[in-house]
Amino acid sequence: MTDEFKKLGPEYRTEDRRITLLSRRMPTVVFYLNMFVIVYKAAKKGRHSLLDRVEWAKSSYSIIRSLEDVGVKIIISGLENVEGLDGQCVFVANHMSILETFILPAILLPYKDVSFIIKRGLIRYPVFRHIMLATEAIVVDRKNPRDDLVTVLREGVRKVNDGKSVVVFPQTTRTTLFEPKKFNTLGVKLAKRAGVPVIPIAIKTDAWGCGTILKDFGRINPHIDVHLAFGRPIFIRNRGVEEHENVIDFIHTKLKRWGSSGDE
What share of residues in the chain are helix, strand, coil (percent, to 5)? Predict the structure, then answer.
């Protein structure tokens, strides 16, 4: 099922589809009901050590389909840059919502085995934690930047040596506002230490809003398109200052083109 992304080539765009009346009127409710079933099934597999790369990708792809079933359009470009790269890399992306955490596995796993760097709070959710633990995510506390850097460099290099690429969100928190000064160099530092290139990912996922009670689970707005764009591999030289600026420029340019509030 996840091979559909390869068959579609470097560009993916949600095709026009019939949206049920209930989904049109209550997209948030319908999506979350489907999502929690998908997550529960994946977590159950995780608890029994059955959530391998293929099952993780299938679960993630089901989330994509559930978003599309309530009217959310997803546009992905630049996957030829992932497919054309031999070996591992560090994916460096901006972070707008939890949506990208749910759908990136389906997009990336057909090409690369991956691990995510996540905040510790995500493994405190009773069900979701089993997925993160089963997929061997790198967990950081985001309390002490120095400690987090040590953890990411140590565990990230180990993942790369084990044949995995690493997904890094260098922003300290999810936000629709892209601020280059708050976009740290963690991804570039890891890539340099591991001896692999960086692939930047520009992300616009504000169709999944922030919640008032739980920040991770807010309103789903089908009128806002989801965009993901993958840049060309960037090989790190010297201290990586220029390469870090190239990553920022790629993300900022894409957000501006999409008319995102990230350009405010």
Answer: 45, 15, 40
In tens, the pLDDT along 191-245 reads 999 999 999 999 999 999 876 656 677 899 999 999 999 999 999 998 999 999 9
Interatomic CA distance for residues 149 and 154, integer angstroms: 8
What is the per-residue burial (b if ≥16 Cβ within 10 Å, else e) of 131-159?
Answer: bbebbebbbbeeeeeeebbebbbebbbeb
Q: Which residues of the chain have pLDDT under 50?
A: 1-8, 261-264
| pTM more than 0.70 | yes
Tell me how far apart the alpha carbons of residues 32 and 137 are, in angstroms, rounded to a whole number: 23
8 A C-beta contact, residue 227 and residue 207: no
Q: Which helix (H) or strand (E) holds 227?
A: strand 226-230
List own/partner pairs for 19-25 with CB under 8 A and 24 or more apart.
19/69, 19/70, 19/71, 19/222, 20/69, 23/69, 23/70, 23/71, 24/71
